Amino acid sequence: MRIPVLFGLSLLFSTTLADDPEYGSARGKLVIIGGGNAGGTGIMEKFISLGGGPSKKFIIVPTANGNRAADGSVQVYNSSQVIAPWLRMGLKKVHMLHTHNPKIADTEDFVKDLRDADAIWFDGGRQWHIVDSYAGTRTYSEFHKLLDRGGTIGGSSAGATIQGEYLVRGDTAGAQIVMTKEANHQKGFAFLRRSAIDQHINTRNRWDDLIPVIAKYPNLLGIGLSEGTAIIVEGDNFQVMGKAKVAVHDNTRKYQAGEKPYYLLSAGDRYNMKTRRKLQ
């Protein structure tokens, strides 16, 4: 039986205990990268460290790269090719997790590798492929259980956007559509609750693209990530790492006439999402 997905864009269903974080996990960590090359930034090393180090169990999810080939046949991933870059980074126990079929993703056999995993990584591509495979399944539930037990989830590009509550660029017609009308592609996996996450904002001139999202869903925090740049999330706080800027679309702040409705953070900046303030 598929598990209902209970997150809502207007946050009508979002409830937390008084002492729990409102945005991130109480125990787990998130590494959210804006795509591009993160080499030389320390971001990938940080992800591995937060996952417990090279000896821990890492799961790689390549699903965003597509579930169907150009001819319509089922896309087949070569596990050795998917995990090879991670082995070169020194990981000892790394496994690929992929299916195009949500019925398979809802089986006990499919999720067994997730039950004792320490970290999960989502590759880039198109985020709606991840939704089609895993939303509402036992696999989706196990993703959240990993965070609940103190694990780490990371991802880049589409693997970043899927971590938000609202799914930016979820339209199957193309990534140029920021807000889809496809009802089944409007919701992310809400690892970072109350957020909408965009990526590649510096190289694809997407600085302003979250403005209509936050206008429609003013309770959300918009986070636009440059390439080679990440936020490292612990609870309600994050720290910026990498080469460029993060645009924070914050509807609670008053802006001057003619001013863009967002502000920029740089590497090393620390930010509290609950108070919407930089930390000193």
UniProtKB/TrEMBL annotation:
<keyword id="KW-0720">Serine protease</keyword>
<dbReference type="Pfam" id="PF03575">
    <property type="entry name" value="Peptidase_S51"/>
</dbReference>
<keyword id="KW-0732">Signal</keyword>
<feature type="signal peptide">
    <location>
        <begin position="1"/>
        <end position="18"/>
    </location>
</feature>
<keyword id="KW-0645">Protease</keyword>
<dbReference type="InterPro" id="IPR029062">
    <property type="entry name" value="Class_I_gatase-like"/>
</dbReference>
<protein>
    <submittedName>
        <fullName>Cyanophycinase</fullName>
    </submittedName>
</protein>
<dbReference type="InterPro" id="IPR005320">
    <property type="entry name" value="Peptidase_S51"/>
</dbReference>
<comment type="similarity">
    <text>Belongs to the peptidase S51 family.</text>
</comment>
<dbReference type="GO" id="GO:0006508">
    <property type="term" value="P:proteolysis"/>
</dbReference>
<keyword id="KW-0378">Hydrolase</keyword>
<dbReference type="GO" id="GO:0008236">
    <property type="term" value="F:serine-type peptidase activity"/>
</dbReference>
